[in-house]
Amino acid sequence: METKFKNKKKKFYLKRFTRKFITSAISATSAMLATIAIVMGFVFAVSVSHAEVPQEVKHIPDKRGITFMANDGKTVIGVLQPSNGLRTTVTSEQISSTMKKALVAAEDSSFYTNPGFSGRRTAIAALQHASGNSSAGGASTVTQQLVKNTIVGDEVSIDRKWKEMITATKMTMNWEKDEIITSYLNTIYFGRNSLGIERASQSYFGIHASQLNPSQSALLAGLIQSPSIHDPAINEESSRQRFDYVVGEMKKLGFIEQDEKVEFPKTIEYTPPQSMGLDGANGHIITTAIAELDKIGYDLEKLYDIGATIITTIDMRAQDIVVGRSSAGARDNGVQVGVTAVDPHTGGIRAMYGGNDGQGFNYATSPQMPGSSFKVVTLAAALENGIGLGTNIDSSPYVAEGGSVLNNSEGMTCGSCSLAEATKQSLNTSFYRLQDMLPEGPVSTQKMAFALGADQSSLADENGFVAKAITLGSYGISTAEMAGMMGTIANNGTKIKRHIVQSIKTDNGNTTYDFKDKGTRVISDYTAGEIDRALAPIPEYSNGNQLSGKQGYGKTGTVQRGDVGGANRDAYMVGYTDNMGIAVWVGTNDGSPLVDANGAAIWGAGLPATIWKDILNQIG
Fold first, then answer.
1. What is the DSSP letter of 508?
2. Element (H, E) at 503
3. What end-to-end distance do the CA atoms of the chain give, in Å?
4. Is 524 a catalytic residue?
5. Counting beta carbons within 10 angstroms of the beta carbon of residue 351, is it exposed (0 to 12), middle (13 to 18) or buried (19 or more)?
6. Which residues does 566 contact at the CB level (< 8 Å), separation at least 6?
7. Distance (Å, rounded) from C-alpha 593 to C-alpha 432?
8. Angle between the 442-452 and 479-490 helix axes, to the nearest 10 degrees?
9. What is the predicted pLDDT for the residue at 16?
10. Which among 572, 571, 569 has a CA at the least distance from the CA of 582?
11. pTM (2 decimals)?
12. Pick from 93, 154, 246, 352: most CB atoms within 10 A?
């Protein structure tokens, strides 16, 4: 009996202890959770107080195509459309009230009462993610979506979600709800290359956002979830299902009457805006201009934002002539041609041909070995250092350090002759000796090239060493650079920066950039005049390629492959008139032997010189 009583007592105390333990555990857990909640709330409040919402989010920029025009400001060369959509920003008053209601119904029914985020939706989404449902949504409110799209990005991480909630809360504290919904509707993508509600209204219905009725608003609001799926032109069934959902939500929220009949709207046929002028030969003008624009601080996004019109330096008459003659030379002989023509007095590129594929390799701006045409640079350096055209220079074989022997092309020699004659005959050995007479040898040639307008990133080995062969054009240089250098000489030694962008205008016609360069004297008038005197006889000497009715100054260049056959691989002709500097390169895209349609070797005095002459006879 006593044992039985003791067992009952033990059970009584065990139950009592268990109840106390559970009660204490619950109290402790509740206290702990409360403490965590208080701490988290404090951290959240402090984070919100320190959060910043950029004012730029209130002022979403337009996004329009970029127009590239010739130097007359009238002729369109091409148009570049943004790949991620066009935007026309509108004010709150320019958006119909039914569109705002449809958005709330579709994306965030508690928008007008929530603090920027929904705790319930966030908790549900968090549990779904924790259970391994990777397809669970982010439970974002309209405000959070705006913050994600404009400020914090869409990285999938707890840190990003935390920042999103904090910033959304701060935005809700500081902004009117109507400001948030307006910014959102100006930002979101609706499909059909349309960023923002104004573009979407035009793309789907051909009307302004202020004219949207309830049915049109419901369709557009339904698109936001997945524009590529819910566009009726792509999937009408899916679009109707989404439309019906939004209309139902609008009725639930009292935005439209329960018995109001809202019919599925008819959309217009959509033709996406296309980029133009990029594929043909003139496409190289656009790609060259884009590269220059980036260097002066205007990337594509910035240009799209201002709906930029780029006024280039291109003269379309000159461009048509250069493209016509160059493409014919390339086609008829199965070779590649690169040509650039520069105005000596402005530095503007007047014409350019880099091949017929405007999105492909640009033979006008890519480095090619110029051969003996580069001797003009060593000549300028010599004249600047007091070595005159009458200076006699030996043309016998040149023995370099290590015993290697340099000869003249085709075994030519003049014995010992003037610098003017050595230039005319393009004697390699004479120019090696001339370069040896300069203060810094080949470096003097390099520095003169930079002074005349060559890009600073070229003309040396990878380790910075400058070889003597620089005077023979052993380093690649583009026709754009060579034409600019010729322009400096034609401008009596005053260099004006080579460029293709003359000005940038915003969509409202304001000029936001205008090229200006007063010019820098880099060689004396005397040196420029003596170069004229040395180069004047060369076009006629080069297979009779003198100009008609005007004086042209030129220098040819040819680079051989160096193999057993001694075939050529690059041929150049550079020069100028008083009004144009020009450089012509002819070669192949793989370094194969450079021959014409009849299989004969092409030299600088051949096809390049005839292209040079034909172009300058018309535009020089």
1. T
2. strand 501-505
3. 129
4. no
5. buried
6. 560
7. 26
8. 80
9. 45
10. 572
11. 0.81
12. 352
Gap between the Cα atoms of 260 and 372, Å rounded: 84
Q: Which residues pair with 80 in a beta bridge?
A: 66
Rounded CA-CA distance 252/269 in Å is 32
User: What are the helix and strand counts (H, E) for the chain?
Assistant: 21, 18
pLDDT tens per residue across span 391-444? 999 999 999 888 889 999 888 999 999 999 999 999 999 999 999 999 999 999
Which residue type is seen at 291?
A
What is the rounded CA–CA span in Å between residue 117 and residue 125?
13
Q: Return d(Cα 530, Cα 443) in angstroms, integer.
A: 22
Determine which one of 118, 183, 372, 474 is catalytic. 372
Q: What gap in Å lies between CA 104 and CA 112, rounded to an integer?
A: 8
Strand order across the beta sheet in which 76-80 lies: 76-80, 66-69, 309-312, 501-505, 511-514
C-alpha angle 214-220-223 in degrees, rounded to nearest 5: 140
- Helix, strand, coil percent values for the chain (each to nearest 5): 45, 15, 40
Structure tokens belonging to residue 342: 């520069």
Task: Compute CA 598 distance to the chain's CA centroid, rounded to the nearest angstrom.
Answer: 41
Catalytic one of 107, 198, 292, 481: 107
Q: What tokens appear for 217 in the block?
A: 């608003």
Closest CA to 167 of 149, 189, 186, 187: 149
Backbone angles phi, psi at 276, to 5 degrees: -145, 155
Report which DSSP code applies to 570.
E
Task: Kindly report the number of other CB atoms within 10 A of residue 302's CB atom.
Answer: 15
pLDDT tens digits, one per residue of 256-308: 999 899 999 999 999 888 899 999 999 999 999 999 999 999 999 999 999 99
Q: Output the CA torsion sign for 605, 606, 608, 611.
A: positive
In angstroms, the CA 15 to CA 281 distance is 92
The helix/strand/coil state of 404 is coil
Q: What tokens were used for 89? A: 């920003």
> What sign does the dihedral 32-35-41-43 (CA atoms) show?
negative
The crossing angle, in degrees rounded to 10, of helices 214-223 and 97-107 is: 40
State which amino acid sits at residue 202.
Q
C-alpha to C-alpha distance for 329 and 587, rounded to whole angstroms: 11
Task: Note if 292 is an active site residue.
Answer: no
Q: Is the confidence at residue 373, as pLDDT, over 80? A: yes
Query: What are the structure tokens assigned to 558, written together?
Result: 């040819």
Q: Give the H/E segment covering residue 582.
A: strand 581-587
**Which of 294, 115, 262, 107 is closest to 187 using CA atoms?**
107
Largest distance between two CA atoms of the chain: 140
